[in-house]
Design brief:
- With 78 residues, the protein is an all-alpha fold.
- 47% of the residues lie in helices and 0% in strands.
- It has a domain of 48 residues.
- It starts with 10 loop residues before the first helix and ends in a 24-residue tail after the last helix.
- The mean pLDDT is 84.
Length: 78
């Protein structure tokens, strides 16, 4: 395993990381590892991310019409 040392971290960022780690019940080091891993290996499609945070499991249900009618093409020659 590789090691990484982060210096000159803004105090506000440090505090937010500390609070976030506490909410997740892990150490700050583990929280930072999880954040870094998620960001650099994240291959989630935007639709997957939206479903995770805004899907029906979170009480949001969007009604999408079954059929959509195409609009007329725009005429830029006028």
């Amino acid at each position: 395993m590789a090691n990484l040392s982060v210096r000159k971290l803004d105090q506000r960022v440090y505090e937010k990381l500390r609070i976030r780690a506490a909410k997740h019940g892990v150490s700050m080091e583990e929280e930072a590892r999880q954040i870094i891993a998620q960001v650099v290996t994240g291959s989630d499609r935007i639709s997957t991310i939206f479903q995770k945070y805004f899907g029906s499991k979170n009480g949001i249900n969007l009604d999408i019409p079954d059929q959509r009618k195409p609009h007329e093409p725009m005429d830029f020659n006028e």
